[in-house]
What does this fold into?
Amino acid sequence: MEYRFARRMKHAPKSFLEELFRVSRDPEIISFAGGLPASDLIDVKGISRAAGDVLEEGGREALQYSTTDGYLPLREYIASRYRKRYNIPADASEIQIVNGSQQCLDLAAKIFLDPGDGIGIERPGYLGAAEAFSLYEPEFYPVSLGGDGPDIEEFSAMIRDFSPKFFYGIPNSQNPSGVSYSSDTRKAVAECLDDSDTVFYEDDAFGELFFDGKPRSPVKKHLFRQTIMSGSFSKIISPGLRIGWLFAPAGILKEFNVAKQAADLHSNFLSQKILSRYLERTDIDSNLRAICRRYGDNCRLMCDLLDDLFPSPMSHTHPQGGMFMMATLPPKMSSMKVFSEGIKEKVAVLPGIPFYVNGGGEDTIRLNFSSAGQDQIREGLERLSTVIRRLV
Amino acid sequence: MEYRFARRMKHAPKSFLEELFRVSRDPEIISFAGGLPASDLIDVKGISRAAGDVLEEGGREALQYSTTDGYLPLREYIASRYRKRYNIPADASEIQIVNGSQQCLDLAAKIFLDPGDGIGIERPGYLGAAEAFSLYEPEFYPVSLGGDGPDIEEFSAMIRDFSPKFFYGIPNSQNPSGVSYSSDTRKAVAECLDDSDTVFYEDDAFGELFFDGKPRSPVKKHLFRQTIMSGSFSKIISPGLRIGWLFAPAGILKEFNVAKQAADLHSNFLSQKILSRYLERTDIDSNLRAICRRYGDNCRLMCDLLDDLFPSPMSHTHPQGGMFMMATLPPKMSSMKVFSEGIKEKVAVLPGIPFYVNGGGEDTIRLNFSSAGQDQIREGLERLSTVIRRLV
It folds into this structure.
């Protein structure tokens, strides 16, 4: 027999992620290619205690089926944190729990996109988003990302000319570039969209990870009824619990909930209860300060080493937060070559190519600074500079 | 602004499930409408112990990101159980972990269906499947389900005439009817499909729940390279852990894995490790015997009460396993009326209508016999018979 797959499967870009997870497991390789938060900053003890209590006090309920929207006390916590941190109105009824914010990408695409519909996206833009969206056969309209966010002229023309269903952006410490939108860019983006029918999809996976600990105002604040905002506990508490959420206007959340129910009924209920219990009695801001300090130190060290060790035409971004930065290789150097030569020298970087949905980015690499320790960063960038100097 | 949703959202049937979960929470209502496994038979202690050990011994790993395919020891357990129980070849490389078998429905539809593609389905057929599939805008080709499985003439003609991408069936104790395919029907279904390009989608959520404890040979045994088989720990260990799987030929599993990664990267890793640890040292067959005994006793009681208390033109199925049976109301009685009048009398049943994808089933109701105790079953069916006698 012949397997007859849907047309969309031909649109799936060959994924780098799975290979990366594999590469990053070779213990001899120093990997800047993955996207793991620092393992030693996961509060295993606190989470274990919460798990023990949940199972002891209400295990029978936590192990049963639950409702699609998610555990109410957890949604209330998320809403209250938005109110406190960003001073925006937010209610538990506007929050849908999902399996990490990756699921928001899939379900948002599902409720909005017919084949051929437009999506705006940053250039470079997040690979995981491009993968999820691609399966809905959209047209991508990439907008150049500068040091302050998307180029506003390009952005505005693109919205006007193509009226995409949504624009997907990461205003806080973007993956892969580490760029954050300036305050002016946030306002300008909101203004451009205000009289359009294009939704702003604000992926806020890294909003809690600014090195200075200060929140930045979300675009949603300026464009409340037209913005869907996704968040995740993966980067701030634990990825293995697979809990993220969508914060969206009721009219959108209703459709999103239908799609969520069809996709998997509801997210892991035990995890939701563990997280909720954990958040009830933990000062997560204290652990977040430790995470931000670590990532900030690592990022500064990486910037210094890139400046000191590498050939001078090489440049890099200067993140204010998050887990990633991007470097541009010396002219005409191939990032795929750097990747394969790097593996031989036991250092892994991620070629920028898959972050450019319509091609380009051959001379860029993404570097992760959250998972390696400082000694590894020094050693790994030494190895990388050897590779690059050899290729110049 | 105007929200512009995808065309597929218009295809989403209005869901009954969420309302049911809500109804079944009113403590005064005796509900036969839901689909919860018996809460008191969930081994909370054993799962707690496994959770404690996983978090203590390897919590840092369990709380990190993992690979899309799923935790290898868990996949090995699943494969070995197939080999042992059904005597079919099965390898961990053919198993993909998902968030309950509901996610298989979504992802299978995603990899196979373009809008307008055909799907074969039993009539009545599983509501959750119809909901998941509908979002991919297929044509449904329902085949009448008799006491021994699908009508083979109808089945064969449908496959020949419409060549659907797949036929979705539940050969073991189907939801909603409780019907199991006879051994001959299994072979006949496989023979009909053998020279077609139609995949058999064998949903085996209830294969471990035969009251006599004996396994029935899956259709996959007769049609190995052409069958995808989904399974779930929800009905045999715990729904709240949200862990199910797909068992499929490599050529299909590869595409399925791409879709899974785009959908949510991977399933809850903590749950996977807890389950794996639990299965390592628990004789689940002993607990399964208790579950089968309970459900069998409940089912027999329900059948007896239906025969004794209800007006004579009312008939019902005679399940050999699973959690559901179906009853046909006296001529011209509306199941929606029985539902709404039932709620007033504090008894909930599920109208059969949503299980008939192309209409029909107005005079049928689905009854769950896994979650209520025997006293509740007696009291609930008394109430229901009052409602039905009043409506005759």
Notes: Chain A touches chain B through 85 residues (CB under 8 Å).
